[in-house]
C-alpha cells in the first residue's frame, strides 16, 4: 500500500527547521507494511497545498499531511482542505472539547485564536489530540484517505501511533506484520552480508530481512507477514539462535532500542550504578545517558578529563603512565575507568581516551584511534578501535562502543536481559 | 528566483536517514536570494526520478538533485538524467581525473565500480568534487538549470558553496546580498516583535528583517539587497547600535554562529580556560564544547555531578547547604561553579542544577526550574530560569543559557569580541 507524505511550512524550505517528522513517519509506516513513495515539503499557501495534494491523491490512496496548523496559521490549511473536499468550516464540538481539556490548568481562559481551532471542514472526522490544541483531521473521500496533523513532533507521533496507523491497517487490511530486530556492531555491512548469506537462505518465505546500517552498527530487521504469531515467534527464535552461532560476538541487542536505553534498563534491573570518565568523548556518554528520563536512578555522574592534569588530579591516573604511554593508551584508559569507579563509588564505569580529530594524530596513533575501557566486578576490560577521520562520528562511535562493551558484560551476568 | 530540491534515496523514505541536506541547501539558497518552493524526496528508480524532475522543471528554472550517485548505485540516476536530456553516457576525463585524485593515497588501485563513475551524460558539465568520487553534474538546457550532486553532506556542501551558488548567482543576476545576524535570548518572540516595531520602521527600503526563532533564542537576520557595500555596512552599524538601546541585555552575538563556537572563540582569544560542573545538563555543555575541533586549547574538563554525593565529594558542595536549600538552589549551583573552577584550575566555570523532568518537580520547584552559575575573575553570578516541561529542551536551554551567561561576561571584558 503506497503512501505519500506532505509537510507544510516555510520554515522547512528556508532550512530553519529540519523535517524529522517525515523520517519518523516513513520508518513507522514501513514497519507496518506501508510504502512511502514520496515526501513533499511545501510552502504554507493555499496554492501550494492544493497543488501538492491533488498530485499526491492522483498517485496514491493515502496522503498524510503535517504542519500548517496551530493557533496563528491554521486557517490556510483548514480553508484549503475544506475547499479541496468541497466542504466548509464548521464548529466541531469534539475539537473544542479536546482543546479545552488540553488547555485546562495550562492557561487562564481561551482566546479567539484558540477558539478558531475548533472549526474544521465539515466533511472530516476529528481524531483525538491529547497533547495539543490543533485538531487531527481524517478525510475519507472517493476511496482516498487524507489525514492532516499538527507539525509538532510529539502531537504527530501520538496521533500516528494511537490512531492513524491502526486505522490505516484496518482500512487497507495490510495483514498482520511482526518484527524482530537484532542489533550488531563492529562488523562492516559487506562482511556481515557475506557471512549471513546461508542464514538468510533458511528464512521461511513469509519472512524478509532488512539491513539498516548506521555508523558502527547495523540493525537486522526480520519482518514476518503472517497471521500465525506462534509460528513466527518460533521462526524468530530459531533464526536468532542461528545468528548467535554465526556472529554472536557482534550481537548486542535483540530489540530495537538505542544503546543508552538498553544500558539504562539493564543497570536499573540489576539495581547497579554507573560512572563515566571521558576524554575524547568529552561528556557525550554522560549526555546520552542523562537524556533518558529516570537515569538518576543508576547514573552517579562522571568526569570529563579533557586535560591530562584532570586525569591525574581527579581520576588518579599516574603521571608516569601518562609520560610513558601517552594519554591515548590502554594503561591510561584503564586507570581512568578504575579511578572514576572508586571516586564516585559506582558499580560500573566506562572510560574513553582517543584522538577525535581532525588534528592531533600521529603515525603511531592516527586520528580516530580510541581506547575504551569498562570496569566492574568483572575487573577491567579495554580495547582499541580505529574509527576514522570525522570528529563527530569518532565521538559518537566511541561513546556507543563504551556503552556496548559494558552492556555485553551485563548481559553475561543475566543473559535474559 | 524559485528553486526546487529533489532528494533521491529509499533510505529517506523508510526513515533510515533524516534528510538534513535539504534544510542546509534551503538555508544557504535563501540567504543568497533564492527561494526554495518545494522539496521532494523520492525513491531511486528511473520512473520516480523522471516524474519528479519533469514536474519540477515545469514549475521552476533551477532544480537541484542530491543522492542516487555513488559507486554502487549511480547508474540509475545518471542513465535517467541522460535519457531526460536526450543525451548518452560518455567517458569524461574531468570526472575521471577528479576521482583518481581523490582516491590517490586512500585505496590501492581503482575498481570497475569506481571507473563507472567517470561516465556521465554527454550534455552535462562536470563540476569539481574534491572530497569524493561521485561527479557533480551541471545541466543547462532550454533555459533550465538542473544540477545533480552526491547525497553525502560534505560533498554536497562543498559543491554548493564553491560552485553551484556562485554559478547560479552569476547566471540569474540575483544581485548582491549582504546579511547581518544578531542573536538575542531570553525574550519571547511576540514581546521582541512589539519592542522592535519602531526600530524596523527605520530600515532603509533595500533592507528586510527576518525573525528566526529556536527554543530560548531568536536570530534577527537583516538582509540588504544592494550593490553599495559601504552604505549597507553603515546602515547595519546604525541599526545594530539602535538595537542595543532597545534590547541590549538580550543580545549575545552579532554573528551567525552557535553559542559554543562563539564561547570557544572568545576563550581562545583571551587565552583563558573553562571547566564545567553539570547536574541537570548531564554532560551536555561539555559535549557541545568538545564537539568543536581545537577545544582542548581552552576546555580543561568537567564534572557531571548527577548524584548529590558527587556534588559534595568531588566539587566540595557543603552537605548543610544541600540539606537546607536542596540541590536545585542558588547556593548549591554557586558552590558547584566555584568548586569545579578550583578543582580543575580553570579561569572560568559554568555550573547547572535543575529539574529536567518529566518527573521530580514540586510546587515550589516545578519541572523546568534550573539554576545556572558562572564563575571567574568577576566573582560568581547565578540566575534561576523556568524553561518548561520537555526534558530534552530543558537540557539544551540550560546548557545554552550557561554558555551565554559566561559569554556575556567575556564580552564585557573585551567588547570587540
From TrEMBL, chains A, B:
Q: Name one Pfam family in it.
A: CinA
Ranges where the MoaB/Mog domain occurs: 4-171
Any stretches that span the bilayer, and where are they?
A: none
Family statement drawn from the similarity comment of this UniProt entry: Belongs to the CinA family.
The name this protein carries in UniProt is CinA-like protein
What is the species listed in this Swiss-Prot or TrEMBL entry?
Carboxylicivirga sediminis
Amino acid at each position: 500500500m503506497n503512501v505519500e507524505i506532505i509537510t507544510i511550512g516555510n520554515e522547512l524550505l528556508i532550512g530553519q527547521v529540519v523535517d524529522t517528522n517525515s523520517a519518523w513517519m516513513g520508518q513507522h509506516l514501513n514497519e507496518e507494511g506501508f510504502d512511502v513513495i514520496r515526501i513533499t515539503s511545501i510552502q504554507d499557501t493555499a496554492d501550494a497545498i492544493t497543488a501538492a495534494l491533488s498530485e499526491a491523491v492522483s498517485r496514491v490512496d493515502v496522503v498524510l499531511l503535517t504542519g500548517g496548523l496551530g493557533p496563528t496559521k491554521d486557517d490556510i490549511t483548514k480553508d484549503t482542505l475544506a475547499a479541496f473536499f468541497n466542504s466548509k468550516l464548521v464548529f466541531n464540538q469534539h475539537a473544542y472539547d479536546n482543546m479545552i481539556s488540553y488547555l485546562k490548568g495550562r492557561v487562564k481562559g481561551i482566546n479567539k485564536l484558540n477558539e478558531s481551532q475548533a472549526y474544521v471542514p465539515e466533511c472530516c472526522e476529528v481524531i483525538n489530540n491529547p497533547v495539543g490544541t490543533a485538531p487531527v483531521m481524517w478525510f475519507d473521500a472517493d476511496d482516498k484517505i487524507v489525514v492532516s496533523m499538527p507539525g509538532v513532533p510529539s502531537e504527530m507521533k501520538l496521533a500516528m501511533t494511537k490512531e492513524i496507523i491502526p486505522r490505516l491497517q484496518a482500512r487497507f487490511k495490510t495483514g498482520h506484520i511482526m518484527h524482530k530486530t537484532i542489533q550488531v556492531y563492529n562488523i562492516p555491512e559487506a562482511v556481515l552480508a557475506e557471512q549471513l548469506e546461508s542464514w538468510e537462505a533458511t528464512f521461511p518465505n513469509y519472512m524478509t530481512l532488512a539491513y539498516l546500517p548506521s555508523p558502527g552498527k547495523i540493525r537486522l530487521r526480520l519482518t514476518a507477514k503472517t497471521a500465525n504469531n506462534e509460528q513466527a515467534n518460533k521462526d524468530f527464535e530459531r533464526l536468532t539462535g542461528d545468528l548467535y552461532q554465526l556472529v554472536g560476538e557482534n550481537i548486542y541487542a535483540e530489540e530495537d532500542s538505542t544503546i543508552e536505553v538498553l544500558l539504562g534498563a539493564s543497570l536499573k534491573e540489576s539495581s547497579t550504578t554507573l560512572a563515566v570518565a571521558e576524554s575524547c568523548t568529552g561528556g557525550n556518554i554522560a549526555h546520552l545517558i542523562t537524556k533518558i528520563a529516570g537515569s538518576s536512578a543508576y547514573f552517579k555522574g562522571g568526569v570529563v578529563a579533557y586535560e591530562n592534569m584532570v586525569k591525574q588530579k581527579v581520576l588518579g591516573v599516574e603521571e608516569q603512565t601518562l609520560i610513558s604511554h601517552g594519554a591515548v593508551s590502554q594503561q591510561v584508559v584503564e586507570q581512568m575507568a578504575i579511578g572514576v569507579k572508586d571516586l564516585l563509588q559506582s558499580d560500573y564505569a566506562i572510560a574513553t581516551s582517543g584522538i577525535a580529530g581532525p588534528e592531533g594524530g600521529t603515525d603511531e596513533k592516527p586520528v580516530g584511534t580510541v581506547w575504551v575501557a569498562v570496569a566492574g566486578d568483572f575487573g577491567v576490560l579495554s580495547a582499541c578501535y580505529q574509527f576514522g577521520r570525522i570528529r563527530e562520528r569518532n565521538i559518537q562511535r566511541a561513546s556507543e562502543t563504551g556503552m556496548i562493551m559494558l552492556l555485553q558484560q551485563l548481559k553475561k551476568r543475566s543473559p535474559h536481559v
